[in-house]
Design brief:
The chain has 130 residues and is mainly β. The chain has one domain: Immunoglobulin-like (Sandwich).
Length: 130
């Protein structure tokens, strides 16, 4: 589970391995969805309610960058930049569990990988009475 503070900039870094040596990451997409699965919160929401979608490539952008599309050993690295507006309480009223997934698209074969799927816990920076 990841944690985000409401109204704060955040950098989410991801790394992985076992990318086929003939492939390199062409783009990556971070999707954050709202909704509750059920009381156990062990399944993704259905239907997904996409609250945020960020797409990045090996070219640096305000949304982030694929910093290592392939290192020759199947390893890769990337990061997404989330802004104050993207973590505001307008996205999901506090406190809230959300769901995220990272999707990788490769070149030249256009494979699709989803190496990261999980929950996000949105928390306030300060608690009343603390």
């Amino acid at each position: 589970m990841r944690t985000l503070r409401y109204g704060a900039d955040a950098v989410w870094a991801f790394k992985g391995f076992d990318l086929p040596l003939s492939e390199a990451i062409d783009s990556a997409i971070l999707t954050v969805s709202g909704g509750w699965a059920d009381d156990s919160e062990e399944q993704p929401p259905s239907p997904p309610n996409e609250l945020l979608v960020l797409a990045i490539t090996p070219t640096d952008s305000p949304d982030g960058q694929v910093t290592e599309p392939q290192d020759g050993d199947g390893n890769w690295r990337l990061h997404f930049n989330l802004t104050v507006g993207e973590t505001s309480d307008a996205v999901a009223p506090p406190p809230r569990y959300l769901w995220y997934e990272v999707t990788l698209l490769t070149t030249p074969s256009a494979f699709v990988f989803r190496p990261y799927v999980g929950q996000v816990r949105m928390l306030p920076d300060l608690y009343p009475g603390a």
